[in-house]
Amino acid sequence: MKSNGKVYLVGGGPGDPGLLTLKGKRCLEQCDVVVYDALVNPELLRHCPPHTEKIFAGKRRRRHALEQSQINALIVKLGREGKTVCRFKGGDPFMFGRGGEEAEALSRAKIPYEVVPGVSSVTGAPATAGIPLTHRKYASHVTVVTGQNSELGAERGWEAYRFMPKKTLVILMGYTNAEKIAKKLMALGWPASTPAALICSGTLPAQTVITGRLRAFTDKVRKNRKRLSAPGMIIVGDVVGLRRNEFV
Q1: From 23, 25, 54, 59, the catalytic residue
Q2: Cβ contacts of residue 239 below 8 Å, gap of 6+?
Q3: pTM value?
Q4: CA 75 from chain center: how many Å?
Q5: pLDDT in tens, the chain (248 residues)
């Protein structure tokens, strides 16, 4: 009877190829199969040996190469075939990467697996944009949420967005709902003068950063639509003002 292989849930970082971890690189170099997502920088696949089978499993808005249930079944199947599998994700697999669901599926199937953390866009993109998420003077806590439509439908979904002093709010995948989000934040108590930023293509040469006070933020985003592209993240809080001392 053939023994099970092993699946590595690997974070590929936020985009810049130089932010891949050494352990992540080793996993790519040793894998029989790589199952990779849309947010993975394709340059990183060059670390795979020639014999590696490459399977695209990316999910973009309304365009899914594979549904999550199919991905779960695929990595279990490959593991049962005795293969060394690199399940390669953008950012960190356990930060809005659905890595937890895949780990559950592997655990239920008794397939050995290991999580290899990656640099998340949550920290990587703001850092390259010059925005610290915490600061002794301006922010003592951070809330990270997703800004996709499915999360914004119910009123209770907005609770995490409420204003608190010295709070930084990070909204992943918030670009397409930027106008709705900005208006709702002010209704939830955020002062209209609060600095906000939109970061698109974070950590990449094409990175674009739009900043402004919350009251005028949607106008600035609207005026720059032609040079922006998803995915994009929104950061709200006084720490945004530390970017090149724009609002200090």
Answers
A1: 59
A2: 131, 132, 133, 134, 135, 138, 139, 168, 195
A3: 0.90
A4: 21
A5: 568 899 999 999 999 999 999 999 999 999 999 999 999 999 999 999 999 999 999 876 666 679 999 999 999 999 999 999 999 999 999 999 999 999 999 999 999 999 999 999 999 999 999 999 999 999 999 999 988 754 555 555 678 889 999 999 999 998 888 888 999 999 999 999 999 999 999 999 999 999 999 999 989 988 888 888 878 999 999 999 999 766 54
Tokens of 188: 């939830």
What are the distances in angstroms from CA 212 to CA 34, 130, 226, 238, 240? 41, 15, 18, 11, 9
Domains and CATH numbers, the chain: 6-116 (3.40.1010.10), 121-242 (3.30.950.10)
Give me the catalytic one of 6, 16, 37, 167: 37
Active-site residue 220, yes or no? Answer: no
> Which residues are registered as beta bridge partners of 200?
208, 232
Q: Is 16 a catalytic residue?
A: no
